[in-house]
Each structure stands twice: as structure tokens, then as C-alpha cells.
Amino acid sequence: MARYMIEFSYTAEAWAALVREPSDRSAGVDKLARAYGGQLVEAYYSFSDVDGVVLFDVPDHAAASGVALTALAQGHIKSYKMIPLLTTAETVQIMQASGAISYASPGSPVRASTA
Q1: What domains does the chain contain, in order, with CATH numbers?
Q2: Which pLDDT score is estimated for 101?
């Protein structure tokens, strides 16, 4: 499973509806993630430049995009950012692979290879 984080902000109308009828939205988010083969890990409200953060696991990018688009299509979210998250072990593997690959940065002399 891949883990994703979505930062989101509600519309003013969504906040008004939640104030009128307070509810724990995490059960609905978990149901949505499960529809795409995953599950909710945790949900937080932040009252900062974003209204909240949701962590969820799903099989792949397509499933993560499905979760996001299904939620966005309801019209109660005014902004969101989806961020794939990597474990420390995955990141170490990436660093090891990156150390074994050479890449010429802009401005570096290009060397012609001879065959």
C-alpha cells in the first residue's frame, strides 16, 4: 500500500453546514478510501493556512486520485494538495540508487562517449 497525505480547505458553505450539524467526517473518508481498496490512517483539523490533513493508504496513484476526485466532486472542498509519502526505508533505497547514477547538471561539460 502507498500512503498519501491530503491537505484540504473547506468552502465557507461546508463550514456553515458543519457548524449547524457538527459531525466526525473521518468515517466518511474511511469509507471512501475503502471503496478504492485502502483505508483512512488518520484525519486532523489544523485551523491554519489549510483546514485539515488526511492520511490514507491505497494501492496506487490511480486509487489516490480517485479518492481525491470523488471528494472534490461533492463541491465542499475549495482547495487541496495531495502528497505521496515515502517511508524512511523507501527513501534510503532511493538515495542508494541515486548515488549509483550519474547525471550532468546544467553547465557541466558534456563528454562525448566513444563506442
Answers
A1: 2-88 (3.30.70.1060)
A2: 87
